[in-house]
Amino acid sequence: MSPLQNTLPMLPRISPLQMLLLIQLDASPKYGYEMLKSIKEAFEGVWELKTGTLYPALKSLEKRGLVETQNRDGVDFYLITIKGRKFLQLIGKHQERSMMFSTRFFTILTKWMSPELKKSILSSLTVFANEDINLVGGIISFLEEGVDKETKLLVLKRFQANFSKRLAELDAEIIKLESEHL
């Protein structure tokens, strides 16, 4: 456990949707449909957010003092409050714990899975590995038990291609930053 974890105040629990809403509102006030449309476009059909989910999430944020509503010409605009901005600032401090938990959770999850369950999930992973997603940790342990050599090689080579792409992006950014200091 990191020393940082012992000194952080507890964060109020919010849903991933509420986090997306707060982050959008941190940039500027928005009306509900505008946020709904942005989220739908960003998720490219992977998640079809409905108004019946969006507005209760906004109202919950408002009840907690993280967001406020302002009516402009008959349209409700949502604004992040000072308390909401302070909450977002705390998020960064909690990222280490969240990322460590997520990585360890995935590693444990895959380690405890039966070979049959791993095999049934493997087809999804091969598709997932082709996506431009940065997966970290746990994949090797997922492939350790009950998976044939050919399937392991196929999946690992696809992940290798994805990770190589990520590494090239990191290398380019490092070169760019280092050249700025010369």
Q: What does this entry look like structurally?
A:
The chain is mainly alpha-helical and 182 residues long. It folds into 2 domains: 16-84, Orthogonal Bundle (Arc Repressor Mutant, subunit A); 113-180. Helix content is 70%, strand content 8%. The protein contains 8 helices and 3 strands, in the order ααβααββαααα. It has helices spanning 3-7, 16-27, 32-43, 51-63, 82-112, 115-130, 139-144, 149-180, and strands spanning 30-31, 67-72, 75-80. It has a 3-stranded antiparallel sheet. α2 crosses α4 and α6 (115-130) packs across α8 (149-180). Residues 1-5 have low confidence and may be disordered.
Give the CA-based shape: extended
Strands of the widest sheet, in order across it, are 1-3-2
CATH class of the largest domain, please?
Mainly Alpha
How large is the count of helical segments? 8
- What's the total number of strands? 3
SSE order, as H and E? HHEHHEEHHHH
**Which CATH architecture of the largest domain is right?**
Orthogonal Bundle
Name the helicity range.
Answer: 55-70%
> Do you know the CATH topology of the largest domain?
Arc Repressor Mutant, subunit A
Give me the secondary-structure category. Answer: mainly alpha
Query: Gyration radius, to the nearest Å?
Result: 21 Å
Give the N-terminus to C-terminus distance in angstroms.
Answer: 38 Å
Largest sheet: 3 strands, antiparallel
Low-confidence stretches: 1-5
The CATH superfamily of the largest domain is: Winged helix-like DNA-binding domain superfamily/Winged helix DNA-binding domain
Domains counted in the coordinates: how many?
2
* Mean pLDDT over all positions: 83
Work out the strand percent.
Answer: 5-15%
